[in-house]
Amino acid sequence: MNVNQSAPPVPPFGQPQPIYPGYHQSSYGGQPGSTAPPTPYGAYNGPVPGYQQTPPQGMSRAPPSSGAPPASTAQASCGQATYGQFGQGDVQNGPSSTVQMQRLPGSQPFGSPLAPVVSQPAVLQPYGPPPTSAQVTTQLAGMQISGAVAPAPPTSGLGYGPPTSLASASGSFPNSGLYGSYPQGQAPPIGQAQGYLGVQTPQRSAPSQASSFTPPASGGPRMPSVTGPLLPGQGFGGPPVSQPNHVSSPSPQALPPGTQMTGPPGPPPPMHSPQQPGYQLQQNGSFGPARGPQPNYGSPYPGAPTFGSQPGPPQPLPPKRLDPDAIPSPIQVIEDDRNNRGTEPFVTGVRGQVPPLVTTNFLVKDQGNASPRYIRCTSYNIPCTSDMAKQAQVPLAAVIKPLARLPPEEASPYVVDHGESGPLRCNRCKAYMCPFMQFIEGGRRFQCCFCSCINDVPPQYFQHLDHTGKRVDAYDRPELSLGSYEFLATVDYCKNNKFPSPPAFIFMIDVSYNAIRTGLVRLLCEELKSLLDFLPREGGAEESAIRVGFVTYNKVLHFYNVKSSLAQPQMMVVSDVADMFVPLLDGFLVNVSESRAVITSLLDQIPDMFADTRETETVFAPVIQAGMEALKAAECAGKLFLFHTSLPMAEAPGKLKNRDDRKLINTDKEKTLFQPQTGAYQTLAKECVAQGCCVDLFLFPNQYVDVATLSVVPQLTGGSVYKYACFQVENDQERFLSDLRRDVQKVVGFDAVMRVRTSTGIRAVDFFGAFYMSNTTDVELAGLDGDKTVTVEFKHDDRLNEESGALLQCALLYTSCAGQRRLRIHNLALNCCTQLADLYRNCETDTLINYMAKLAYRGVLNSPLKAVRDTLITQCAQILACYRKNCASPSSAGQLILPECMKLLPVYLNCVLKSDVLQPGAEVTTDDRAYVRQLVTSMDVAETNVFFYPRLLPLTKSPIESTTEPPAVRASEERLSNGDVYLLENGLNLFLWVGASVQQGVVQSLFSVSSFSQITSGLSVLPVLDNPLSKKVRDLIDSLRAQRSRYMKLIVVKQEDKLEMLFKHFLVEDKSLSGGASYVDFLCHMHKEIRQLLS
Ligand SMILES: [Zn+2]
Predict the structure, then answer these.
(1) Which of 248, 366, 628, 659 is 20 to 30 A from residue 593's alpha carbon, by CA?
(2) Residue 675 in 3-state DSSP?
(3) What is the Å distance from ligand 1's center to 758 Cα?
(4) Reported confidence tier of residue 782, pLDDT bands at 50, 70, 90
């Protein structure tokens, strides 16, 4: 029987069948199932009233989730079924009314030269009206020449301070967590350390950092520029050049009336001829190194050469300045997407739909594809051939967060139990049953959507097909109708063919001098007493199944027996750290409620037991080894929580030396700062992964601790690293305790393996994140939590097909917190295209940046940083040049034309290029860079978005009674008004900036002092005052913190205060002190690179 032969290979969803209250599915890619011939099963030839009440037939065991699906899914969105296969992607940043890069009706050959402009009515646009502001035209031509290189007095308070104020990196900034510098004199008094042989006071070779850095030439006095609020009508409304989807620069004649020029009064604007459309910037040497030296600085900054281009001699000609309001604004793009796509749920029934931006609040309805909270792709339309992909240079990658937490309005994945037979899989490629599998022969067989293999349907899984070829029970089975779901795993999926025991948590506390002196140990022990009541538990379980154990250490280890039958805890010391063993099994890992009294007693005693310690030395690798051995002995997976303060210099495996050397910065050896100094930790990590032992590391350093080496095990075991430089209880306890509470309570999958399968034609080739790989396909994660992502890059190995598209299936096998072995499956179908324009119309720049940042941050391990930066710039230029050549309308070479979906690529890429890892400022320590590098590696798209381009929120501009978050402004000093107060956050840092002319009433309301000068700079807590403004600001701070996976400590920064330098580091559209280009300069540079590629 060939009932379904004429059906397309992968059309799992039929027309919506309104009478099934099940998971409504929209028709798929414009291929309605109605073309399928009638099936022989007359009984199912149409809707069967009441069908949904009938239990599925042929099932030996009903899945627990096969009851009535959530009622909310019955509200299937209308109109989805009418989507064409092409053109869904125009919704990315708001559709344009005319889509210039629309495919021609008579399909052009791939790679043809410039297409003529075709103005077509927009294709169906599902989300809101087209914002006219999406048609961006940039004024690259009519730039005013400004005297930016001419020495000028700094503006009052807004200019960068003299270089001397920033060179004093040591000790001048408060401990921000990221940029804490180390005060002197933290070691115990030498005199008191006598009697402890071998005790060394670690010396920090501090002087090198201050002396080896001359301030960048580019960081000189800034010209006064336009500040204050945007004028109405300014920005994107501008020039009437109808180049939809493009950022273009019209000829100077088209200078929009009223365009705001920036820069000081200077020479009159040049009269450009149309043949020279104003693009002289590159010849003028307006980019970083080529800019004329600043009079105030004797020598150019060694790290200044930002770009690969040859720095020309200083040019006498002053550069022109672009109008910052006329170049693509992240704020505008985010706003437009919120307005257009934040109002309706994102329904995942349509293949290849680009989801709303990560900055937009939206609900997701799973109708057959995984939610963008689980998977985001760089493009939702993949080129059909590898040649095309190579030409475009757009990376094909997916950022996957398998255990992502969902908002309360969205249901967690259903758990499907197939009993002893386990989940149904393809015999050949082992893909799991999913909505894209094609049932044939009346339902007796199915064709695998990944490898095309024909498989028999086991009798217990048999079900009849309806007239569209769809199983009649499709909507009752999550695995046949949803993008994401879970299977209960059988014993075959378990280590040693044994169902796992519940995992264990081991708390391992450094009790050396530094940990005791700062009050950390006391604080931590006190907190653990209550926190242990909040260990993760599953579903409605009354108490957590997780067992706990305790170890303290300095250069020896102390294990504790906290067996419930004991009156007092017992300590066992292991001093042979070279050959670590676990001295006790019974009583080490215990149930919290059973052993509560003993545990409480232990936690009370620990701070006192070590109160008088003078031991400054610590070990590190033996601690991890001990925890891992303890889990091995208990035959369970688990997590180690390490609280550690110093470079482990005691004689032991994994002993480290201080090898920090800032002189390596900007040399070919800089990469060694990111590499671990010994291979011992990789070996240890491998053992941990085999045991399912995940390591979370909390660091409290007073000086260099070699984060690059200490984070190896957390990184390879799927753990997290937290760093609290110069920890002091009074200043930092809120941040530490918030992070700790969240970390201990979060749901984790243990002993996990993730595999990404793809349909024929593409293949996963590269992986980024916190995990270990022992082969080329399996991502091994000792632990995986809901914050961590795995980024996967795909490459072609065959031609793809427009009709069948491309499929991804991510399968994560893991042990839940309760010890249940499960498989979580996420499926995603993507479109494939033969036209480059389709690729460019369906890209997601935020995801692209996430991937590119991870690629670059891994690159620094092996390549000089300049090479890494140059590679990024070149790739970006190639992407944009390919668009220009193949998709854009013919225009003069002086125009910079950017695809609508990628118009923020230059600004965001510049933020990556000038980030601390790739281009460090003088105040950034080696440990800071290693820390950030490993953090970014497993960040999701929302986190990288705000991390690289911080949010800057004016607090007193919107009415006080307004309850919504104030609209953000661009991260540039020009946007700061000295009469206002701003919050800036990037997911790790949070600043409150107070302008010098802010109203006295505002100062009083927020700080309870009478004038600006009385505000304490560096304040980290706002007073709780009973007035609307104070409440609003504190609420906003709470709300920002709640959105982020780590607690952001507040730092109050006053305008003109020395702390302001720290704050300005985050104004990423401006030129940075470390030599990073301003957005305007970078855009010009990118234009030049593109032009070179095109000529
Ligand atoms: Zn298969």
Answers:
(1) 628
(2) coil
(3) 10
(4) very high
For residues 822 and 753, the answer to whether their CB atoms sit within 8 Å is no
Q: 218 phi and psi, to 5 degrees?
A: -80, -5
Query: Is residue 20's pLDDT more than 70?
Result: no
Long-range contacts of 862-866 (CB under 8 A, 24+ apart): 862/671, 863/671, 864/667, 864/668, 864/670, 864/671, 865/666, 865/670, 865/671, 865/918, 865/919, 866/305, 866/308, 866/666
Average pLDDT, the chain: 78
Q: How many angstroms is it from 423 CA to the middle of ligand 1?
A: 14
- Decide: helix, strand or coil at residue 505: strand
Backbone conformation region of residue 272, classed left if phi is above 0, alpha if psi is from -120 to 50, else beta: beta
pLDDT score for 406: 95
Which one-letter DSSP state was computed for residue 451? T
Q: How many Å lie between the centroid of ligand 1 and the Cα of residue 607?
A: 58
What number of residues does the chain have?
Answer: 1095
| 236 CA distance to ligand 1 middle (Å) | 49
Q: Around Cβ 359, how many Cβ atoms within 10 Å?
A: 21
User: Ligand 1 mean position to 429 CA, how many Å?
Assistant: 4
Instruction: Give residue 538's pLDDT.
Output: 83
**Position 189 pLDDT exceeds 90:** no
Residue 957 has pLDDT above 60, yes or no: yes
CB distance 827 to 413 below 8 Å: no
pLDDT band for position 321 (cuts 50, 70, 90): low
CA distance 134 to 94: 7
- From ligand 1's centre to the CA of 457, what distance in Å? 13
Amino acid in position 140: L
What is the Å distance from ligand 1's center to 437 Cα?
Answer: 9
Dihedral of alpha carbons 864, 865, 870, 872, sign: positive
How far is the CA of 708 from the CAs of 437, 672, 721, in angstroms? 45, 9, 11
**Residue 473: both structure tokens together:** 């029970």
Q: What is the pLDDT of residue 579?
A: 87
pLDDT for 320 equals: 57
Write phi, then psi, for 166 (nearest 5 degrees): -105, -15
Helix/strand number for the chain, H first, E second: 24, 29
More confident residue, 320 or 898: 898
Q: What letter would DSSP give residue 201?
A: -
833 membership: H or E segment, kind and range: strand 821-833
Buried b / exposed e across 531-545, counting CB within 10 Å, b at 16+? bbeebbbeeeeeebb
For residue 1073, what pLDDT is reported?
87
How is residue 3 written in tokens? 């009932």
Average pLDDT value for residue range 256-264: 33
User: 455 C-alpha to center of ligand 1: Å?
Assistant: 9
Confidence check: pLDDT of 404 > 90 = yes
584 CA distance to ligand 1 centroid (A)?
48
Q: Does residue 240 surpass a pLDDT of 80?
A: no
Q: What is the mean pLDDT of residues 404-415?
A: 95
Q: What is the DSSP letter of 1073?
A: T
Nearest to 703 by CA among 647, 649, 642: 647
Report the separation in Å between the CA atom of 438 and the middle of ligand 1, taken as the mean of its atom positions. 11
**Ranges 280-284, 510-514, 772-776: which has the least confidence:** 280-284
Both structure tokens of 893: 């070479």
For residue 199, the one-letter residue type is: V
Determine which helix (DSSP H) or strand (DSSP E) holds 459, and give its type and residue range.
none
CA of 433 to the centre of ligand 1 (A): 10
pLDDT for 22-41, tens place per residue?
333 333 333 333 333 333 33
Indicate the range of 387-396, 538-547, 587-596, 1050-1059 predicted with least confidence.
Answer: 538-547
What lies within 8 Å, CB to CB, of 426 at 6+ separation is: 437, 448, 450, 451, 453, 455
Note the pTM of the prediction, 2 decimals. 0.76
CA–centroid distance, 44 to ligand 1, in Å, is 28
In contact, 1004 and 1014? CB cutoff 8 Å: no
Residues 6+ apart with CB under 8 A from 622: 553, 557, 577, 578, 580, 652, 653, 654
